[in-house]
Amino acid sequence: MTRSSPEVDTIVFDVLGTLVDLDGAVRAAVRALVPDADDDRVDDLAARWEEHVGAEHRRVIAGERAYATADVLDREAGRLVAERAGATDRTAADEVESPTRQVAAWPDSAAALDRLAARYEVVGLSNADLTTLLRLDARAGLRWHLSLSAELAQSFKPDPRVYRMALDRIGRPAERTLLVATHAWDLRAARAEGMRTAYLARPTGDPPTPDDAFDHHVTSVDELLAVLLDRPSTGDPA
């Protein structure tokens, strides 16, 4: 489903979950940590990792904790998971402490960025810290005109400061900048800052509610490409 929206100059992609399979990377790291665990046990441990990271993001945004990089929070979560699992394998524990650096791209991500970059300014905006984002982009084959981390705002999405930082760096009006994400919470925050929004369905995303009013709802990157590339870009060549 697509709503009417003006032309955009810049397409900003969320990274974790939207272009790369973070959930799969966390579960793979947990399985390596506890090889004999059944699916329920893996789900429980992976959920513990994700809960810690999410909770600490919220604490930073609320001012209850000083900013710490995403890598620090990932390692905290990994240690909690290793302790809960009773794991003693140091190599496997290292992997569950930094699954973001091991994450793989969804199969269609790299090709989509290449096609869009020929017509639009393409930007990545991630909660991953700058160093982790560098390693992740290289591993997953993600190529951007600009890669931005929430670290630059010393916070995490959905803090409004992150989107304002991105808009300042891009130098485009919010209404001519489109955020693409699989997380409805991310899109709501971007929309509140005046950005255009596109929900991209992924197996582990956060789907919109009936009350959400995003500009585009697409079920695949190919559908997003068809929607965007069907219209002429009016932005300067990137």
Automatic annotation (TrEMBL):
Q: Which Pfam families match?
A: Hydrolase
The family note in this entry says: Belongs to the HAD-like hydrolase superfamily. S-2-haloalkanoic acid dehalogenase family.
Alphabetical list of SUPFAM superfamilies matching this protein: HAD-like (SSF56784)
The regions listed as transmembrane in this protein's record are: none
Which UniProt keywords are present, listed alphabetically? Hydrolase
Superkingdom assignment: Bacteria
The name this protein carries in UniProt is Haloacid dehalogenase type II
Determine if Cell membrane is one of this entry's keywords.
no
**Key word Hydrolase present:** yes
Q: Which InterPro entries match?
A: 2-HAD, HAD-like_sf, HAD-SF_hydro_IA, HAD_sf, PGP-like_dom2, S-2-haloacid_dehalogenase
Q: Which organism is it from?
A: Actinomycetospora atypica
